[in-house]
Fold this sequence. Notes:
The radius of gyration is 20 Å and the shape is globular. The protein has helices at 17-24, 45-55, 70-80, 97-111, 172-177, 190-195, 225-230, 232-245, 254-278, 281-297, 299-306, 309-314, 319-336, and strands at residues 2-10, 31-38, 60-65, 83-88, 94-95, 119-128, 136-137, 168-171, 204-216. With 339 residues, it is of the alpha/beta class. Helix 9 runs antiparallel to helix 10 (281-297). The protein is 45% helix and 18% strand. The two termini are 38 Å apart.
Amino acid sequence: xxxxxxxxxxxxxxxxxxxxxxxxxxxxxxxxxxxxxxxxxxxxxxxxxxxxxxxxxxxxxxxxxxxxxxxxxxxxxxxxxxxxxxxxxxxxxxxxxxxxxxxxxxxxxxxxxxxxxxxxxxxxxxxxxxxxxxxxxxxxxxxxxxxxxxxxxxxxxxxxxxxxxxxxxxxxxxxxxxxxxxxxxxxxxxxxxxxxxxxxxxxxxxxxxxxxxxxxxxxxxxxxxxxxxxxxxxxxxxxxxxxxxxxxxxxxxxxxxxxxxxxxxxxxxxxxxxxxxxxxxxxxxxxxxxxxxxxxxxxxxxxxxxxxxxxxxxxxxxxxxxxxxxxxxxxxxxxxxxx
Length: 339
């Protein structure tokens, strides 16, 4: 059994996957690197995965499957994981070696100790192409450092300070116990990966180090705004699945419930802002129906979201509300460096 399983979803990733894998190899034999070739057809992704599996048989495993999308590649990694903890690292991203060693030391302490850690959180940096100043996302105001805590000890998260796939390592059994099963051929499932298992998390630990380097810059990247607008149906699908898979009223801890509601509000806001940014009559009608359908099918979520600031603005359905929302969105882009 391994200490940590790391899944790398790869789809036509020949040009950058080596950098990712090489950054993870210093974890040594305690780590398994699951290189998931998700039906790549245009390059040598599968061959490179096999090469690393041959050269590092105690660390790397190559998994080949028909194309199922990012979520199914994560599912494949989870199905094959033998590690006590589980992490996803996308094939165009990489990790910091010193922070990596510190995180493994923390995980080791809990695996061989008496206490159980469900979720480890660390910092990440937006490696946005062309930007001289890189935005680092940290959680210092929300999470005490270097101690095992429960949700009762979590403080207020600031706007933009949400725990993302880049910043989280889950205990593998937590992912399995919540029944995590990401949808096929769907982008933006990282929101489900973080959101759904969090209902099972009882203990957290925060390492205040930049561990994950999140690359943004390729024109075809799924998080580019124009690409997200083209794939708005997939963003909305994930949004609906978040409604379906977590009943907020069943979450007993108040601080966790508040955090999940805040997270859901942000994802819902992104869905609506992308429809606004498009501005086509079709997309504006989709936004109107989105709120209408939410009120009909998920009245509890609608009641909770429509009472909050962005919910009131987004639900206002007028030009002034849209201008305000887009202004906040553009400011957030400049501050946090996403898209």
